[in-house]
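Sequence and structure are kept together here, with a separate record for every protein. A complete record is shown below as an example:
=====
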Amino acid sequence: MSYQSDLYEWTKEQADALRRRAPNSLDWDNLAEEIESLGTSQRSEIRSRLKVLLVHLLKWRHQPELRCGSWRGSIREARDQIEDLLEDNPSLRAYPAECLTKAYARARLRALDETGLLCVPETCPWTIEDVLAGDFWL
């Protein structure tokens, strides 16, 4: 089975070839590409969840009259998801700080679209430590 025609079947065949230690059965180039994409997907997932968290924090900060338990729960859940990803991928521990500025810029635009607020700061008002801290509520 080829990589292009049936990815699922290809992955099963490649896993089997690896377990059998059969190097001649391996699709080396596509296998390397897929392994690299696994790492990229973890980074993307962290960045995506960070953006969601930042949107929720912006709403929490700038719409105090609308605060409710579900918002608090959403903030906690986003933090938990990021922490789980970082526990599973310790080499990405520094990544949230690296992507904070870009993630905040996108989260800010989303918060503006969703709320119509005009007073959202252009630069992130928090450190990454504050953003990820379970006891930080602005």
User: Anything to note?
Assistant: Residues 42-132 form one domain.
